[in-house]
Design brief:
The structure holds two protein chains of two kinds. By secondary structure, chain A is mostly helical. Chain A has helices spanning 8-16, 27-34, 46-72, 84-88, 92-110, 113-116, 122-145, 150-175. In chain B, helix 2 (20-42) packs across helix 4 and helix 6 packs across helix 9. The chains are: A mainly alpha, B mainly alpha.
């Protein structure tokens, strides 16, 4: 299978000898200490940050949704009777899996050079795609601040689902 | 061991009240482990240093919310892992190999150093999967969730990483 001169066993052995700790440069603590502002209880509460991030994500997402639905008049896209139930049945893992796979497929379809020339509002579609990505990245960044926030996890899942539904709708429209 | 735990609890309580000396003792206790993970995940010394700094600033800010329902290190490690992964995400897909070679990091014996350097030469995704699964002990499902890839992709990247590491280390042992 492999003609490497370094055996699997040797790799396992080297792996076991990897140190659990590596000393960081000594000056790092001083830099950290200089940025510890005041009493931690007086630091901004994560809830406030979460609300801010959520508001940002929601507003970006809202712009994309509004513009899309206004231009197409497509009720199927809006989460509501008809597609809301199906969306909510997806688990987190299914959503991540679907998101990674489907988005790559839709990106391929949307990027097809033969069809893009015929789409009058291609720039709008690209802009909306970017809006979804920005909304997703805003929530991902917020999750770094508050990794245990259920609200943010739900928000991220919602954006994934909405991005997928949007991409699916655009792809269907283009190929119908 | 028990007194260690009591000392830690006391340091946490004092740091929650704003005692920077107590916080520096928590830093001394855990910075090495956090830095090792960050360095391996991020692949470059400057990114790992940024991730370490950011981690401890977040820990300081979030300490008042730490209620002690989990081990302190488990809580800290979760923040550290998310922060390191966030820095890893920002890394360009085509990493700068020259930067890896310029970094002055040399942890110890040759075998260890060779493997550390080889891990840092791995392509971005293969490196992250290898570090999470082989070094940190996550399952492929967990690694997949953290990196937002499928468990199957994690497995494939893991085998790719192992093969590349054997190739890199094999080259080195030929010299």
């Amino acid at each position: 299978m492999s003609d490497s001169k370094y055996s699997e066993q040797k790799l396992e052995q080297a792996l076991r000898s990897l140190p659990r700790e590596v000393s960081p440069p000594p000056a790092l603590w001083q830099q950290i200490e200089a940025n510890l502002d005041g009493h931690p209880q007086h630091a901004a509460k994560p809830q406030v940050r979460t609300s801010w991030w959520l508001a940002s994500a929601a507003s970006v997402l809202f712009c994309a949704l509004l513009l899309w639905s206004t231009q197409t008049g497509d009720d199927h896209f809006r989460p509501g009777p008809g597609n809301e139930h199906a969306i909510q049945q997806l688990t987190y893992e299914q959503t991540v899996r679907s998101y990674e796979q489907a988005l790559a497929a839709y990106a391929g379809q949307l990027g097809d050079s033969d069809s893009t020339a015929e789409i009058a509002d291609w720039e709008t579609i690209r802009w909306q795609w970017q809006m979804f990505e920005q909304a997703r990245d805003v929530v991902r960044d917020a999750m770094v601040q508050s990794p245990e926030s259920d609200v943010l996890s739900e928000q991220l899942m919602f954006i994934y689902q909405q991005h997928l539904v949007w991409a699916q709708t655009v792809a269907t429209t283009l190929h119908s | 061991m028990k007194s260690d735990s009591l000392t830690e609890q006391s340091d946490i309580k004092q740091a929650q009240r704003g005692d920077k000396n107590a916080f520096s003792r928590l830093y001394e206790r855990y910075a090495g482990r956090v830095y090792a993970t960050s360095l391996r995940l991020c692949g470059q010394q400057n990114r790992a240093e940024d991730a370490l700094q950011e981690t401890f600033l977040k820990v300081w800010q979030q300490l008042p919310q730490f209620a002690g329902r989990s081990q302190f290190f488990t809580w800290l490690q979760r923040i550290a892992m998310n922060t390191a992964i966030d820095h890893w995400r920002r890394e360009p897909v085509l990493a700068d190999i020259a930067q890896v070679e310029q970094d002055s990091y040399q942890p110890g014996a040759d075998d260890e150093r060779d493997l550390e350097q080889a891990i840092r030469r791995l392509p971005k995704q293969a490196r992250a999967v290898f570090v999470l699964v082989a070094v940190e002990g996550f399952t492929h499902a967990e690694a997949g969730r953290l990196l937002e890839i499928e468990a199957g992709t994690s497995k494939a990247q893991y085998f790719r990483a192992k093969q590349l590491l054997r190739d890199y280390l094999g080259e080195h042992s030929d010299e």
